[in-house]
Specification:
There is one protein chain. This protein is of the alpha/beta class. It folds into 3 domains: 162 residues, NAD(P)-binding Rossmann-like Domain (Rossmann fold); 177 residues, Dihydrodipicolinate Reductase, domain 2 (2-Layer Sandwich); 39 residues, no CATH class. It has 13 helices and 17 strands. The strands form 3 sheets. It has a 9-stranded mixed sheet with strand order 15-14-13-9-12-11-10-16-17. Strand 13 and strand 14 form a beta hairpin. The longest helix is centred in the last third of the chain and has 20 residues.
Length: 460
């Protein structure tokens, strides 16, 4: 099986890795586990696209880390994503260039080579003496790569959405726990002061009894490129930059290369690879809802009033572009989710009090509510100044990260539940967060897991 056995064919050749500070020894030299204070974490990057490009600076600028290798079946191509920079690139060669140039400048050694490259992540893990990996690949790969890395004893920073389906998320969380590795979900809003402050206000009753929550997520289908040719739904020749298209597809069903699905982040428009905007942004905002409600180890009991324009499963763009649904918790708290709302989270309390939080903004009604001071007896939440830094610190100390694999699984499960309900055309689905099963609904239970193709198996 692909997931169990590492290929024994010749490994891809790469340049040797050298530490930036030779007097700091790598963890790999000491054996796996928690590092000594003098150890430098050897980090490998699996998938170098939009999000890895965002994360890499905080790892490169951390003197406890040495980024040593990049694995990606893409060589180098445009990587526009959220960036307005037309020159931004993705792929293993783009990642290597960024990493090499950073260390060359830091050491004042032009031409310094710090980073190796691999097409296959398994080859990178087998060959390089890694201590940790950053997983920033299309969503349908997250489970396989997490389980593989955890079974090798590697610590993992895994981008969101953490899992591709509910059953996969549970297996990931159990495998990470069993191997006692540090895991950080890339839900970086937990390391943002505004989101933490909003959650602390809710936990401490600053707006009185919580009456309802509204969550605004984006609508439409992702389209980063403006050219119609770049968004064509017709099969096209595999481009040169796609070194191994079969590896890119991995556990997804076989299909020809289609520009509308297989470049930049447009793959999020198809259920073979992702869950659309509901899982993409839901992974962020629904995670904050869980945090505010103290539900990190639990979840809702129902998803109700589901409405969407969900296309048929056989369409190329088959994720919901417009949608609304209500998330219901056991104590009666109701969360209204819609692409018609402003992007962000609004908490409604008593007497017209409310809190709105989104990236870069926190507003309260009345305005002076934002100046509320919490005393020593108040509930205070986990504080992280930098998400990547928190991951590294927890590798050294052995403490849980601010967004563990279990937390990430519980949060993204809500988005998966909504997509299941929408796919089934249901007005309501009931969920047991303790057993993680639907209530008397075998048809829905079948959708907790997704089939894997091409010989891939999710097994440690």
């Amino acid at each position: 099986m692909n997931q169990i056995h590492v290929s024994r064919r010749s490994f891809v050749s790469g340049l040797g890795t050298a530490a930036v500070a030779p007097y700091i020894i790598p963890i790999g030299a000491l054996g796996k586990g928690r590092p000594a204070p003098s150890a430098r974490i050897q980090l490998g990057v699996i998938g170098f696209g939009t999000m890895a490009g965002d994360n890499i600076g905080n790892f490169l600028n951390n003197d406890k880390v040495q980024v040593v290798s990049v694995a990606d079946p893409v060589s180098e191509t445009g990587c526009h994503g959220y960036s307005s920079d037309p020159n931004r690139k993705g792929g293993r060669l783009a990642g290597k260039r960024i990493i090499d140039e950073f260390y060359a400048k830091q050491l004042n050694q032009p031409g310094y080579k710090a980073c190796t490259t691999h097409v296959d992540f398994r080859e990178m893990i087998e060959k390089e003496k890694l201590d940790a990996v950053l997983i920033s690949t299309p969503d349908h790969w997250h489970g396989l790569q997490t389980v593989y890395a955890a079974s090798k004893g590697l610590h993992i920073y895994g981008q969101k959405p953490m899992s591709y389906c509910i059953a996969e998320g549970r297996y990931m969380a159990d495998t990470v726990k069993a191997n006692q590795v540090t895991f950080q979900v890339g839900s970086q809003q937990r390391s943002d002061n505004y989101f933490r402050m909003a959650c602390e206000f809710i936990r401490n009753g600053v707006i009185g009894k919580l009456e309802k929550i509204e969550v605004g997520l984006p609508g439409g289908h992702f389209r980063w490129k403006k050219s119609d040719a770049d968004f064509s739904q017709e099969p096209a020749p595999i481009p040169e930059w796609m070194t191994d298209f079969n590896l890119w597809l991995g556990p997804a069903q076989k299909r020809p290369y289609i520009p509308a699905l297989h470049r930049n982040m447009t793959w999020r428009n198809n259920l073979d690879y992702s869950g659309g905007a509901i899982t993409d942004w839901g992974a962020h905002h629904l995670d904050i809802v869980q945090w505010a409600l103290g539900k990190d180890d639990s979840g809702p009991v129902a998803i109700e009033n589901l409405k969407s324009d969900m296309p048929s499963r056989d369409k190329i763009l088959n994720t919901a572009a417009h949608y609304s649904f209500e998330v219901v918790y056991e104590e009666g708290t109701r969360v209204f989710v819609s692409d018609a709302f402003t992007n962000g989270i609004t908490f409604y309390g008593e007497g017209g009090k409310k809190i709105f939080v989104t990236r870069g903004n926190l507003e309260t009604t009345p305005a002076e509510l934002i100046r509320t001071k919490l005393d020593d007896k108040s509930v205070r939440l986990y504080k992280s100044a930098r998400h990547e830094g928190n991951f590294i610190d927890c590798i050294y100390g052995g403490e849980p990260t601010i967004c563990t694999c279990e937390i990430g699984h519980r949060s993204i499960s809500i988005a998966h539940l909504a997509n299941i309900g929408l796919r089934l055309g249901r007005n309501k689905i009931q969920w047991n967060p303790k057993t993680e099963c639907f209530v008397n609904d075998p048809e829905a239970d079948k959708l907790k897991a997704s089939p894997m193709f091409n010989g891939w198996v999710l097994k440690a």
